[in-house]
Design brief:
The complex is a heterodimer of chains A (348) and B (184). Chain A has 348 residues and is of the alpha+beta class. Chain A folds into 2 domains: 2-51 and 245-342, no CATH class; 63-233, no CATH class. Chain A is built from 11 helices and 12 strands. In chain A, the strands form 2 sheets. Chain A has a 6-stranded mixed β-barrel, surrounded by 4 helices. A two-stranded antiparallel sheet of chain A has the order 11-12. In chain A, a hairpin with a 2-residue loop joins β2 and β3 (104-113). The relative contact order of chain A is 0.21. Chain B is α/β, with parallel strands linked by helices and 184 residues long. In chain B, strands 3-4-5 form a 3-stranded parallel beta sheet. In chain B, strands 1-2 form a two-stranded antiparallel ribbon. In chain B, β6 (175-177) and β7 form a beta hairpin. The N and C termini of chain B lie close together (10 Å). Chains A and B meet through α1, α10 and α11 of A and α2 and α3 of B.
Amino acid sequence: MSAVVFYAVKDVKKNRRAFIFITIAIALSTANIIILNGMVYGMTDDLVERTIETSAAHISIYPNEKDKYIEGLGIKEQKLESMEEIIAYSPRLSSGGALSYREKSKTIKLLALEPSKENRVTTLLGKIDSGETLEANDRSSILVSYRVAEDLKAKVGEDATLVFENGNSKVYRIKGIMRSGTAMDLNTVVINFDEAAEHLGLNNKASIVLVRLSDISFSGEYKNKITRELGVQKVKEWKQEVESILSTAETFGKISSVINAVGLFASAVSVGVIMYINILHKRRQIGVMKAIGMRDSQILSVYIFEAALIGIIGIIIGNALGYAGTKYLEAHPFTDPITGDMAPRFYP
Amino acid sequence: MGPSGSGKSTLLNMVGMLDTATSGEIHINGYDVTRMNSSMRAEYRLKHIGFVFQFFNLFMELTALENVMFPMMLSSHPFYEERAEELLEMVGLKARINHLPSELSGGEQQRVTIARALANKPKLLLTDEPTANLDTKTTKEIMELFLRLNKEQRQTIIMVTHNPELGAMADRIIHFRDGVVVEE
């Protein structure tokens, strides 16, 4: 063992109290960075995954610029069925409306879909908080998001009046209350596609068609293929649908980088101050080192080695703490009333 | 020898190359050591000069054995541990080699310092008031050790002291006053 390493290790052992303090400071700031980054990326992953699962699918087909709806839905569906990598598609109709229950009424977003098709593309209809989900051809029931149910104080099994945006109205039984973990939870009512089309007078039309591919990596290729073969202008990949989430996450990422930098700087300053004070107390010791023939570079190496040793131990402990903290938060996620559970991920 | 402030310790520090002279030259063994750079001075101190201080100045985190081993580790001595044990035995501390300085008496600490100073077989042993913090009996033991080193191992020792009794044991005495040699 070299004399420098020998002395540095002995010195660290002798001054273990100060060094434990410094190590804790480094470990905590490392763990903080890991957990904070894990939070940002984990939440982004959760949101992206949830959006794809419930509302974006792999590809979304929208009406052309000047149209409100996609026209000729039947022919377009046939074309989608003939494409090799498309395993499922689900047309949806979206419109406004109101839901009345006893004396209360609430403006809602009406989402009409065909359960048998929707279930092959998204998991939206599986996000049931209470009651049951909508089944194929069930035209007498609706699903309401949990916030709508809370606002109206409506319960599963009770009847509510749905007023369509063209003024038509009909009484439906609330079959289930949904909690999707997305913005849909705020004010959505889900109804059978054919039932809504009939009341809204929208035969052979859709507001959007969601497409699921055999592999998400085909989305770029199929976006172009669908645009070409269906003669539609506005087709979006999942990446474009989650763009706003990704850009928000990027902003959060930048903010967390600033917080990390400030944390690191504060930690570096405190560690530096402690080590400086520690070395100031060792002026006599440094004098003796010189007297016995240590070169200036060797004396400096002793303190650099000590700092490196403490830094490495602090970072290892910090990584372990960060890993444990991230895993704990992953198991005990934060619950957000709108977006649902949010958990960090460990990114080594 | 000389009163406080006469320049004894300054001379010793300059001979030991811990301080640099503002003017003039210092020759040791024919070398003008004032021309050496910092690394060369450190190397020269390591191999040719041993220091014994008034306040012992041991490394408090090292045991007696480790304190003596340390300069030999720096000079890559092949058998540093064995030689450190021999040196501690020579100064009468064989039984205390694994003790920390805080567990040793003043006299024992000074003997460890002497063993450490002799580790790399220096040409010069520089001692600054080595007995100033010791009682009469221990002072006598330490001085006997110095005399033994001087006679038996022909070790050159330069000692700074106030004490005329200790001065009387030396072969050559230089008296200082206000930074000037007044008598030799």
